[in-house]
Amino acid sequence: MKPWLLLLALAGPAHAADTAPAGSPDTPVTTTYRVGDATRAWFALQVSGAAASPLPARSEQAVRAYQRYQKSFDTPMPTVDVNSVRTSGMK
């Protein structure tokens, strides 16, 4: 995809959101957001189930996934000596 086409595609919706609604050229649009509004919106979306997948995981799939999760704790975390590790750009 051409870079300028991608730029136009991404800038179009952002520019459209800044425009005032038709029919009220003199009335400024003000939207105030309070702390927690986004969180409450996410919780409401979860409760409504509107964005949920059509079928939940079957019980045997959920059990196997949880067993894999528990098994991941059987392997100890590797120890790393910070002084011996080289990062890119350092010589």
Amino- and carboxy-terminal Cα gap: 38 Å
Gyration radius from CA atoms, angstroms: 25 Å
Main beta sheet strand tally, sense and closure: none
The number of helical runs is: 3
The secondary-structure class comes to mainly alpha
Q: Provide the β-strand percentage band.
A: under 5%
Helix percentage range: 40-55%
Number of DSSP strand runs? 0
Order of helices and strands: HHH
Mean pLDDT: 76
Describe it for me?
This protein is an all-alpha fold. It contains three helices and no strands. It has helices at 3-18, 37-48, 59-71. The longest helix is centred in the N-terminal third of the chain and has 16 residues, at 3-18. The mean pLDDT is 76.
Short description, anyone?
The protein is an all-alpha fold. It has helices at 3-18, 37-48, 59-71.
List keywords for this structure.
91 residues; 3 helices; 0% strand
Give the topology.
Blueprint: H1 3-18, H2 37-48, H3 59-71
